[in-house]
Every structure is written in C-alpha cells, then in structure tokens.
Amino acid sequence: MKRQRRLGAVAAATALTLGLAACAGGASDYQSTSGGSGSLTFRSWSPIEQTTQQMIAAFKQANPDAKIDATIFNYPEYLVDLQTRAASNTMPDIVGLQPGALTQQYRANLMPLQDCAEKTWGADWQQKFYPIGLEQARMGNPAGDENFYALPLLVQTVNLWANTKIFEEKHAQIPQTWDQLKSTVNQLKGGEYAPFMLPAKDSWLRNVVFLQIANNIEPGLVYKAEDGSDTWTNPKIVEAFDYWGKLFTEGIAQKGAIGLDAYPTGANQFEAGNAAMIPLGAWWIQQSDPTKTGLPPLSEGMSGYQPFLFPTIPGGAAQPQLVGGIDVSLGISKNTKDPDLACKVLTDWIAGAGAQKLVNTFNDLPAVTGLNPEKFTSDKQQQIWTTLTSDWMPQVKYSRYLKTPQMDTALGDALSGIATGELTPQAAAEKVQAEQQKVNG
Amino acid sequence: MTADIKATPATAAARGRYAPVRAHRRRPHWAHAVLAPLAVLWLIPLVMVVGLSLLPTSNPGTTALGLIPQEPSLGNYVQIWTNNPILRNLVNSLLITVPSVLLVILFGSMTAFALARLRVPLKAVIFGALTLALILPMSSIVVATFKILQAMGLYNDLAGLVLVYTALGLPFAVIIIRTSFLAVPNELYEAAMLDGANKFSVYWKIYLPLSRPALAVVAIWQSMSSWNDFLLPLVTLEDNKLKPLTLIPLAYRGTFLSQPGALFAILVLISIPIVVVFLLVQRHLVNGLSGAIK
Amino acid sequence: MSDHTHHHRTAPREWRTGILFLLPAIVLFGIFVVYPIIYNFQASTLDWDGVNPGRFVGLDNYTRLFQDPIFLTTLKNSGWWILLTIIPQALIGFLLAMLLNEKLRGRAIYRAIFFIPAVLSPVVVGIVWQRIFDPFNGVVAKLGRATGLNLLVHGYLADPKTAIFAAIVVNVWMWTGFSMLFYLAGLQLIDNSVLAAAKIDGAGTWRTIRSIIWPLLRQTHLSLLLLGIIGSLKTFELVYVLTEGGPNHASEMLPTYTFKQAFQLQSVGFASTISVVLLLIAVISSLSMVRAFGSGFLTGDEK
Hints:
The complex is a heterotrimer. Chain A has helices at 2-21, 49-62, 75-87, 101-105, 114-121, 131-137, 164-169, 178-188, 203-217, 221-227, 235-249, 262-271, 339-351, 353-360, 379-392, 405-419, 425-440, and strands spanning 39-44, 67-72, 94-97, 151-163, 194-196, 275-281, 305-308, 323-332, 365-366, 398-399.
C-alpha cells in the first residue's frame, strides 16, 4: 500500500512535468508581470549603464511620475535573457535590438513604431534620421511589411583610428592607399607598439574589416552576393578575401592577431599607446567622454587620436567607401501596459532630453542629424565629431552587417580560416557561397 | 572500500611501529623546494588579476611584463563601491548561498546515506540518474527552469534560486559524501543498530560527524556554484532590490568598455567571500579518520 | 552489506526508510532536472528560434548534427580535454595533497594559493590568460624574448592547432587546486599510521605511496574521474571568454557550440539537439565507468 502511494506521487510529479513540457515550441500569450502603468522596464546591452541612468534621470525630470527600471548587461547574456523572457511572457517594455535578424526574431512581439514617431515628430519624421539607420531598421522585414519594429538610437561608421602621437614622433603619414599602409607599417615597426593592431578574435571585427576592404574593391558587391544577384565567388570578392589574408601574411597585423579580442584587451592596448593604428569605429570617440573623470592622456579631448578610412585597394574604387549602420536600436513590446509612456521614453531617448544626455557622453553617434554635445573639451574633439557626424555618417551606404546571423557567422569563420592559413581565399569564398545558397534556400 | 580499511597492513600494529615518526615534525623542509616554485607559477596570473583591478582609468599602461599597473590605484574599488549598493547585493548573495549550502548538505547526505547504508530499490539507477544533473549546462536549462519557477510562483523570488541550486548541487554532494560514508567501517553501523538506535540517529550522530572533510568539500563546491552563477538570477529576478553580487560585473562587461579595471575590481571583490569560506573550511581537512573514530 | 542477510520478504519495509531518506532529493530532482531534460528533448525535434512557434521536424536536427564537421571537432576537443585535464590535475593535485597534508609552515597559505584559481570568475581568468598568451605583448612571449626561448613567443590561443591545448593549460591551472582539495579529503579517510609510514624518507616512501596510499584513494580517483569527464564535457565559460571557440571553431566545445546555436544563430531546436547528445554522452560515460570499475563503484557494494 505504501508502495502504491509512492507510485502515485511519482505519477503526479511526472504529470506535472509533462504538463509543463507542453510549452516548448509554442508561442506565448502575454501576462504582465511588471507593475501598473507609469512604470516601465528597459533591458539592453547599450548604451552603457552610467549613461542610461543619466537618460532616465533626464526623462524623469520632465515626467516625475514615471518609473523606469533599467538593466544593462553584456550582449551574449542579453540574448539569453531576451529569449527567455520573450518565451515566458516577461518581455521588458523597451528593449535594445540589433537590426536584421535579432529584430526579425522578435517582430511578432514588437509594436510598429511609425505611428509613435509620426505623433511625436510629425509626418516628415524620417527626415530626422541618417538614411542608413532607417534602411537597416527594416532590414529583413517580410515583403510588403513596411512597419518599423525598431528605431535606431545610435549609429556608427566602421573605420580605422591612428595614434597621432606615434605618427608625429615617426613623421609618418596616415595611409590612404594599400601600398601606403604597407610602407607605413614597415616604417613604424620595431617599436614597443604594434603598427597595425588587429584584434581579430572577434567575429564582428573580422567582418567589418573585410566589408571595408570588399567595398573599397567593388562597392556594394557583397550585398549583391547576399541577395543572390551575384556570388561570393566573384573574383572581386575573392580578391577581397585575398587582401584580408595579406594583412596576416605580409606582416601588417601584429603577431597572434587572431587570438586578441577587441574589448577589453585590444582597445586597452591601443589606449595605453601600444598600437599605432587599430580598426574600430566611430564609437571610439567615447574614450573622450567629458562626463568621466580620470581620462588617459591620449583620450583627453581625443588629443592622441585621428579617425581615417580604410585605405583604397589597387584597381578598386578611387575613394574609400563608408561602411556602417546601427549600433543599437530600440523596440517596444507589443504588450506593454503603457504604450504611450513607452513611446514617450523611446522618442525622448532618440531625439529629446535623454538623447542630449546620451550624446553629451559621446557614447556613439546619434541616429538623428543635428544633435550635438553641449560641451566639447577640445577643438580636436569637436573637429572629429564634425567629421564623423557631418562628413561621414550621411555618406554611409554600406551596411556593417550581413542580413542573417548565419551569413555573419559563415563569413567570420571563413575569415578566421584565411587568417590561420587553413583556407585559401578561393576556398573561403566557396564556403561562404555554399552557406549563402543554403540560407537563400 | 570498507574492506580496504580493514585489510590495510598498517592498522593497529603498524600504528605503534610508526609512532616515533611523529616526534620530529619540523623535518619536511624539502617540501618547500617543490611547493614554492609551483606556488610562484600559480601566483603569476593571480598577481595579474589583482594588478588589473588596480589599473586606473587615467593611465592604462602596465609594467613588469604587464603584470602590474604603472600607477596602481584603488580608484576602481572606490568607483564600484560608490556606484552600486554592494552591501545589499552581498546580503542577497548570502540569502541565496547559505540556505542552498545547508540544504544540499542535508539532502545530499541523506541521499548518500540511503545509497551507502540502506536498502533501497534501483540503487544504481538512482545514482546514475543523479549524474545527469551534473552535466546540464545552465545555458541549456535556463529557459525550462524559468518556466518551472514561474509555474511555482517563484519568479522574482530568491527562494526559487535556492531550490534550483540545491537540486543541481545534489549529485556532487551525493558522490562526495557517499564516498566518505562508505569509508566508515560497517561494524559501527551494525553495532549502533544492535544497540537499538534508529537509522536516522545513526545517520545524524555517527555518519555526519565522521564525514566532516567530505562535508567541507561539498560546502566549498556548493558555495562556489551558487555564489558565482549569474544567468539564473539575471533572468528570474526582476526587482533590483533582490539582485545578487554577480549581476554587477555584467554592467562592466559592455561591448565597448576598453578598461577592465572596474570589472576586475568587482570580480576580485566577489571572489573574496569564497576564499574566506575556503580558509575556514579547509581546517577540517587535517585530522585523519582514525583519530576521529577513537 | 548487512542487508544481504535479511530475509527477502522484508524488503518493502526496509525500503520505506531508504525512500524517506531519498525523498527530498527525488522531489527536487524530478522538478528541476527531469523537466529541463524533457523540455530539451522536445525542443530537439523542432525547427525553432526559441520565440516564435516552432515546426516539428522529427529527427532532422540529429541527422544534421551527425553530418556537421564542427560537431566532430567538439567531440575531438572534449576527448583531449578529458585526457589532458584529468591526468595532470590528478597527479599534481595528489602531490600537493600529500605535501600539504603534513604539518608544514605556511600550509594554509599554500593551500589557498593553489585553490584560489578555482574560485575566480572564468571571465577574469579568460581575460588574464589571453593577455598572458598574447604573443605580441604577453608575459609568456616577453619571457621568451628575454631568454631567447622562441618556443614561448607563439600565439598559442591564435593557432588553431594549439588553441585547445592552451585552453586546457589554463583549465589545469584553474582546477588543480580542486583536485588537491579532493585528495586532502580522501586522505582524511585513511588511517594516520598509514600516512605516517609514507613520511619516512628512503626507499620505502615511494613504495608506500604507490602501493598503499594511492590504491586506498580509489574512491577519490573514481569520483574525480567522473567529475572530470563531466566537467570537461560541460566546459563553457572559460573557452567562451578565452577563444570564443575559435579560431574557426578549432577550440569549440559542445556547450559553446550549443550557446552559439541557441542564442546567436537562433536555432534553439538544433542547440537542444546538441544538449541532448551531450546528455547521452555523459550517461554513456558513467555507464562505461560502471562497466570498467564494476557496479560496486556506483552502489558501494563489494564486488
């Protein structure tokens, strides 16, 4: 009899687990877990925590009753958190999103934002934004779906940065062509620093460097290969893979480049003066954030840095091309309890008082034009800001992302294979093309 | 194992034979010749961890082969301390870790006792199934675990974390404690039963006290695993007031943060309590079993 | 065991106490371990991104996995990891435990030094060792250049042939102190007089250690072996921070691959498949241990 009771208990436990198990693979219905209206949750990996707190404070100054609970954390963990919450009805009201696949994954859980934008900024609201940001915001939408499920918050160019102190000491010129890059690297060799520090452990960094090379060879070609109107095995793309490989084989990148991560180690080395050049992007200007104390000498007012575009490639485009796009965009959960408040917060952070706080920290470039920091700490900082926001950002035509994470991964793997000598440029191109055909179906 | 102890050639008789050895204890200086170089090797990365936590934002340069900052400063610790409610986070971490350690020791030793000394069906199956829990990586089970906690009404509740960590810590505890229980001579068990003691008091009064070294290892392991996990608190806690220490470093690991100083400072701070636990508990790893039985 | 002498018909009564002892563990286990396993298994039959409705695909994910060359790499890496962490950790850990079980000046400090790496966050460990191994600016390379040992000036984490081994070195550094702790606990189960015998210098010491103490620690070895195999199979954070599984998947482990599939590539179905296979490998490993070391290993019964 005792035994039967035990069996009964086991059966009940099994039934419970099986009942729960029915959840895997289903879409979830919403039940709110956060507090009543006037209270919002925000989760993202960007902007950084300290800046987010300033943006919240700015918003609350105008809306004292609002309560915004923000949690900012590392990108990989953010993906886990977002997926878990979306799958269990606890999605935050406002979320940080990357354009393309991530936004598309959550599309069904997100509120279209064009009405909110129009209500806040008027019918011509799109004029406020840099074109590449708006274009990427809808990247991957199904045909005929013109909704904006996310609006860009910060945008960026990807480019190179020089340590001008080293360049001045060595009387070196910032390279504008591939040959100059090689000769400059040779000129700068032998010091305590790397002439061209390539932190190529990170897949995203490999990809953006490659996209700069590829667009300098034949602007726009990779995106055609992506949509199927051309192929990755096009000789011009193979040539781009080849140039990527030359960064390693011709001694341009430092030794062990493929094992060095961009953050924190690579960036930290660059800031410590251990590198003359590094491929990063517009966001590097955040090193000179005047709201922070204790900046290193090179970063103070950007005194030691100069941004420049990836050198032109022989036989390629005459001018270096601008590659970039959205750093982070914001979306609103379809089931938020207080859509009006969420819209108010979102638009405030993109182009209102919160945005001003954000821009004051030089965190990255604003997604809207004409928004500048209230205070510059040096003429050089202002001049760099102007270059980035007025000269470069409006010209960005080419995306720093591919459309799907599968292709981003395949490209990153192929570049890694070339860097370590496991793949020839041709073989790499074929691998990427094979993956592309799989993705395109 | 029980047989091993009895069969040892060096029991009672041997004890007398080797007794004089204990007189000259100060002898093994030669051990330092092995230990010191190894310790130096082990210390190099540790010095670097502490060094980087002292790296000031104003001077990211390092010296001594990159081990220590050019200008060490406590600024990162000050920053961490002023920007975060460290004490509240610490209390939350303790509220998660302490109960889970106690529960895992209690439930784990009960299970170990049943497997080692009691008659239960399907022993091998139970033990084998327990090892399953060891293999599950947190990132693979986080969604499912979240759903269970939600169904149990333990979303945004520290008690939920305690239960999950206890469940996941049980297999380890069972493996370790069982080994130790098996080493307790079976005669003790039989003698106690003949004296009329019930099984629970044999477990509680004889086996548990005799297994202090094993319990120490379990306590350390369980403290480490429930203290250091961040994925589960990240997704199951909503309220900032409930957040444990491990959620602080995530904010200092942003994609574009070039200065690891603050991250290292908070991670060093988080490690300290576990080192203290280790130092307290390792004292139990000194007396041999024979001493304890007598 | 004593129970063997009891009459067969008393078994269910005997079981009652045993089951009461097991009950808390069984309940917790049923809730927090069984369900996630079922969940993973179910998800492994889906083409699913974790958010939107999934599509049932039967065993397609398994077919895809077994044709995936990266899966092979992860198996090979797990094999190396098991082999090259368990043995050095056991040997060094045993040595340390023997030396640090005696009264020795600074014993607690030594124990702490060897143990602290296990306490540190893998994030810190990963970042620091990346700096140590950096062939351009790292400690190892700088030492190599200073001493002319060119062997040291190499990007071990950057070279697909060596990345996994470099990660294993870091892992050994991190976890040897834990093996030491285990052996210390194991040594407490051995009669003091046996240990005293090993202290005598001279020809007998080595023999005592090898033929008496080492065999007496059998249960500790086996526990460490089991934990070592499982710990190796589930290695995640350290590799993720050190190499991200690269270069070009050269140091990929099953959990890092699972993580990438589930959260970066939005293939939760495929990721769950890897988890299920990981689980199966773990079960097979523990079953083979039972075969290899006798069922007494699991049940504690004499053979």
